[in-house]
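Quick one:
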Amino acid sequence: MSTNNTHQDRHLDCIRMGDFFMILAHSTRMRIFCALQNGPRSVTRIAEEAEISVSNASQHLRLMRDRGAVTSERQGQTVSYGIADPRFFQAANLIREALDDRSNATECSRFATCAQALPGADQTVEAHSTETIHQPTTH
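Output:
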């Protein structure tokens, strides 16, 4: 394969991924995505968990299905939706963890000194503020 074809393939992959990420870029669709994390759901249950109307959920699910993010299966009169590939959750969790790490790093930069734990380590984060913070003590 030539270098030009490799570059073109990467370019097309980036476009395809960008189109997919646009699906989840909408906060309502992200809430739907999160509602499906524990397995397939009916539109009614998705709407309830995402705190949106059934009509709104149906519209977003149709787009998500058409773009390949979710699958649908009819069971009698009920349509059940699920995530098309479990790796989508793995990717979302990696992004969430990275955002959490960045948020913690930003939070720590507000303190004079900070020792951060490695992700997943059973260590506590120590932070010393330049201001004294009085917290109530419980006995």
